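=== Per-residue structure ===
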Amino acid sequence: MMESGEYNRFSREVRALMTQDSKWAVLTQQVGSCSIHFRDNRFEWFTRSIVSQYLSMRAAQPFIKDFKNSAKSLTCGHPHDFSQ
């Protein structure tokens, strides 16, 4: 697992990259505006999963829909609530 400072920097870079694409800006802001517990392993996995799929499957509509559903269920202060 990354150190907290390194992971925070990674997260900022990810959000900056994703917000350059207007289709992702609202979804990214929805995740980024929450107070995230960066030391949570499952959230780190979730973020890495988003990034890898975003980079390799940007145009894939099913993934975009899945990301919307995941981001919608990620609630501020409750990093475990994003998956079912």
